[in-house]
Amino acid sequence: SSTASAPVATSVVSAPVASQACAGSFKPISASGAFAALDPGWNLGNTLDALPTEGSWNNPPVTTATFPQIKAKGFRSVRIPVTWVNHFTDASPTWTVDTTWMNRVETVVDQALSLGLSVVLNVHHDSWNWADVTATSANLTMIEEKFGRLWYQIGSRFACKSSALIFEAINEPTGSTQAHADELNKLNDIFLKSINDAGGFNPQRVVSLSGLNMNSALTAQWFKRGTTYPKQPWGLQFHYYSPYDFIFGAWGKTIWGSDADKSSLVQDFDLFHGNFSTIPTFIGEWSASPGNTETAGRWKYYDFFLRTAKKYGYSTMMWDNGADQFNRSANTWKDSVAVDVLFSAVKGQNNTLADSTTDPSATAQSSSAYLFHKVGDPVIAQSVSYQLNGNTLISITSSTGAKLTSAQYSISATGVLTLSQSYLSTLYTTSSSAGLKATLTLTFSNGAPLSLSIYQYATPTLAPGVSSTYALSALSTSSDLHIPITYAGLPQIAAVKALKSDGTYLADDWTVYLGPLQNARWTYGGWGWDAAGLTVAGSGVTTLKGAGKSVTLTVEFFPRALGENSLNVTFTA
Fold first, then answer.
1. What is the 8-class DSSP label of residue 356?
2. H/E stretch holding 147
3. Per-residue pLDDT tens over the stretch 157-190
4. What are the DSSP calls for 417-473, one per residue?
5. What is the bridge-based pairing of β-strands 382-387 and 393-397?
6. How many Å apart are CA 211 and CA 46, to the nearest integer?
């Protein structure tokens, strides 16, 4: 592992200082202080970083309403990723950035700063474009020149902004070797020179330097702070999307929260902290998307991740691509409970958490984010379990605001909540149609309120008129295949099992060593889901065609149980 120079750069000038280049004054802050002020933060993802420009991906352009919504929720900072590759108006040696684009970036930054939010501004997807030092044809001389010119221009435009603006050298720079790291360390030095040459308040501005991929292990292994500009207040950031299988819904992993899960996260943080215990650090990206993760597992992950980050003194900035977390147009959160858990954990409050299965060898999985009743089963009292964490249940209210009475529920000292048969009978009968029957809000003596969604369910089916068999020869690998599904309960696909006609796995044979609800499950990227049903990506079609045999996909739903609550789609060779 590498060592970093002593954090002399984090020293604070005790009083505001005047700048000859900037009107007004600048209130210096240490890197530790600036990073602490970020917590918690939010990423303006897939927006100014979109290719070729803002609005090209899934989000509309930023409006004056965007950041007030984020601040009103309680976030204290925004990271504003910006991709510059399509906004140069000339080439070497000047690499001039289009003035209209620079104006637009400044407008968005100013909107956030004017609200009192801290801002992290960076060079984003350029890292795997022109600034990719790992590319076979990489021209390092060109990369260094262009990178330096870009940051000189950014530094010049933003030189007189307040100390609430932090510069981040480059997002997730590619690389996996010592040579790649050496070049990145050089780019960090070029970044520092460029912003200092630009003048203004930049020599006192807090900066976030970059390690390979923003990966905690690679940064710990190879990052080295140069010796130039020793008075520049600086620190590091890393990004955290682990464990991959849970975060991305891969290989049927729909549980999280075991002692082993928690230990792995702590070990990752320990590794980084052990190498940079004196260097201010924040986590610039992290997420557990409602689209990829099971709800109770997600709430537990949020709580433990944020508490662990707090323990190590790491502020966190949630990644949001505009599809996973916050709907900017509707001003709604996909999982408002998870966000409430976030804020409570950051404040150090004890959250009560919905319990759920953590044993990977289980053949069925439970989740207390939901209460499921199967169509055809008698209506009886049902129970769900909670990790109270020292709290007591104060009240349960329905979506209309009506409070449940003591005759309608009871809760044990160990957190087992039982809803009475008489109450559940007001929501459904043995033969009533599948679907969401009620959403209850549970309020506790401390921490975030939780939701309990009550579903009556049956086995989903393919939508009317949709075939369960597809000829692989008729499918194109250049487009996605959409298979409409009629959901009958929670409208979410849990996992997809993929078996060839001879019983062997379509991919990832090693999943035979995983639990029964992960054996042969297809990984992230080959398939996806939405409210309309299953999508097999073009890359997934390529995998199916490459099998050389017919393949059956078993599409599994919540609640999960081996051999139950699933439907099959067959692809014939």
1. B
2. helix 140-157
3. 999 999 999 999 999 999 999 999 999 999 999 9
4. EEE-HHHHTTT--TTSPSEEEEEEEEEESSS--EEEEEEEE---EEPTT--SEEEGG
5. unpaired
6. 22
**pTM of the entire predicted model:** 0.95
Distance CA 531, CA 463 (A): 12
Tokens of 231: 């008075």
Cα 572 to chain centroid distance, Å, stands at 37
Structure tokens at 419: 């809803």
Give ∠ CA 237-162-317 in degrees, rounded to 5: 30
Quickly count: other Cβ atoms within 10 Å of residue 478's Cβ.
8
Q: Give the C-alpha separation, 295 to 489, whole Å.
A: 15
Category of 388 on φ-ψ map: left (φ > 0), alpha (ψ -120 to 50) or beta? alpha
Task: List helix spans (H) across 127-253.
Answer: 140-157, 178-198, 216-222, 244-247
Q: Which two tokens stand for residue 401?
A: 């605001």
Cβ distance 224 to 184 under 8 Å? no
Retrieve residue 188's tokens: 């960090």
User: What HEC string does 508-533 produce?
Assistant: CHHHHHCCCCCCCECCECCEEEECCE
**216 token code pair:** 């905690």
Sign of CA dihedral 272, 168, 95, 59: positive
pLDDT in tens, 310-364: 999 999 999 999 999 999 999 999 999 999 999 999 999 999 999 999 999 999 9
